[in-house]
Specification:
Blueprint: H1 2-29, H2 36-57, H3 64-78, H4 81-93, H5 97-122
């Protein structure tokens, strides 16, 4: 159990640091009110977790600790649902209802499609 917790913690740390660095650089290049960095990270993270899920089902990702490191740890730290929720609240608070609809619905639909695509690519 301790080994699994350490795997998840290390994966989460790497995922969180990756998310921060990507957001940091993207917000320097894309100066816009729309939270493109979080949006893109959530879609890419969804694709990645779909790929990992598919690999695990096919028997390519057999070791439990590696699965936990990559899915619960890295993908959990990399994707940003709490940040996503806060950014949606800010869009609503600022009266950007169109941005809110695009961001919330787009994240849900593209996130689901990305998980499915990752899973399908491995199948």
């Amino acid at each position: 159990m301790l080994k699994t917790l350490i795997s998840i913690g290390l994966g989460g740390a790497l995922g969180s640091m990756s998310r921060y660095l990507i957001s940091f650089f993207l917000t320097r290049w894309l100066v816009m009110a729309f939270p493109f960095a979080t949006f893109g990270i959530n879609v890419v993270g969804s694709l990645l977790i779909g790929l990992l899920f598919g690999l695990a089902e096919r028997g390519y990702l057999v070791m439990h600790d590696w699965r936990m490191f990559l899915t619960v740890g890295f993908c959990g730290g990399f994707t940003t649902f709490s940040t996503f929720s806060l950014e949606n609240l800010i869009l609503l608070r600022d009266g950007d209802y169109f941005g809110f609809l695009i961001y919330a619905i787009g994240s849900l639909i593209l996130g689901l499609l990305a998980v499915w695509a990752g899973y399908w690519l491995v199948k």
